[in-house]
């Protein structure tokens, strides 16, 4: 069956599905980090307020998206390479896997934190999710305490990734950034 740019990678560009996952997660993270930093501290025994409620809602949506995205990524080919050196391909792959891992790690440590506090959490405020441990569990406390560090690791990976994308677009002026831009005509290879 012929491949459709609406779903899968064609030529050297990512398909629509990969782009929707990519940019939806970028937008959600742009909201999630400021909420995480600005929301009021919450003490043992208190129930989550509105800001924390939004943080949990967006965080669990990011978790769902990254799991679906990873499943899509592992079952579909990436677009053909655009003439990079081998070391550049290896480096970018490493950063991509670090991004997947740190998004997953940040969301899961948050879920452990909520489980430690004994908060009931649900996907889209309607599908209850199980607690990962019993409330007050020392292991959940430990893993939950890594949430902030996991967020910083994610920010570091994002900074390297975005700087590399800008370097390709502005200095090297190659097609790397174009592969992932949302605009439709970038889905096609330029006419020869
Ligand atoms: C990638 C997604 C996420 C990001 C980027 C993120 C980011 C953050 C940040 C920056 C903070 C503030 C940390 C600090 O003040 O040191 C925070 C706190 C918190 N987040 Fe997240 N978070 C995410 C997902 C989640 C999820 C899925 C949950 C729970 C299901 C969660 C639960 C919490 C809790 C309970 C706190 C308060 C922790 C504390 O007081 O130390 N987060 N988050
Ligand atoms: C303005 C911000 C961003 C820009 C300009 C950007 C740009 C790009 C580009 C151009 C690619 C394709 C690279 C290639 O073809 O080798 C890409 C892939 C990727 N980006 Fe971003 N990105 C941004 C933010 C993010 C963020 C915040 C995350 C993660 C949370 C992320 C995760 C990824 C991943 C995992 C891939 C690899 C896709 C795959 O092949 O599996 N990006 N990005």
TrEMBL record:
Its main location: membrane. It is a multi-pass membrane protein. Its cofactor is heme b. The lineage of its organism: Bacteria, Pseudomonadati, Pseudomonadota, Alphaproteobacteria, Hyphomicrobiales. The keyword Lyase does not apply. It is found in: Cell membrane. It holds the Pfam family Ni_hydr_CYTB. It comes from Rhodopseudomonas palustris. One of its GO terms (biological process) is respiratory electron transport chain. Residues 14-182 form the Cytochrome b561 bacterial/Ni-hydrogenase domain. Keywords: Cell membrane, Electron transport, Heme, Iron, Membrane, Metal-binding, Transmembrane, Transmembrane helix, Transport. GO terms for cellular component: plasma membrane. Belongs to the cytochrome b561 family. Signal peptide: none annotated. One of its GO terms (molecular function) is electron transfer activity. This is Cytochrome b. The chain crosses the membrane at residues 20-39, 51-72, 97-114, 149-172. It comes from the Bacteria.
């Amino acid at each position: 069956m012929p491949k459709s740019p609406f779903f899968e990678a064609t030529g050297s560009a990512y398909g629509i599905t990969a782009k929707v996952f990519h940019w939806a997660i970028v937008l959600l993270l742009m909201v999630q980090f400021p909420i995480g930093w600005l929301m009021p501290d919450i003490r043992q025994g208190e129930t989550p307020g509105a800001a924390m409620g939004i943080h949990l809602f967006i965080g669990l949506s990011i978790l769902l998206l990254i799991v679906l995205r990873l499943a899509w990524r592992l079952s579909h080919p990436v677009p053909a390479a655009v003439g990079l050196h081998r070391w550049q391909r290896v480096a970018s792959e490493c950063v991509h896997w670090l991004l997947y891992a740190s998004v997953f790690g940040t969301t899961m440590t948050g879920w452990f934190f909520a489980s430690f506090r004994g908060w009931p959490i649900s996907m889209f405020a309607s599908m209850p999710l199980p607690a990962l441990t019993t409330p007050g569990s020392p292991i959940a406390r430990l893993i939950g305490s890594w949430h902030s560090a996991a967020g910083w690791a994610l920010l570091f990976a994002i900074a390297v990734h975005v700087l590399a994308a800008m370097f390709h677009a502005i200095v090297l002026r190659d097609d790397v950034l174009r592969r992932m831009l949302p605009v439709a005509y970038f889905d096609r290879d330029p006419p020869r």
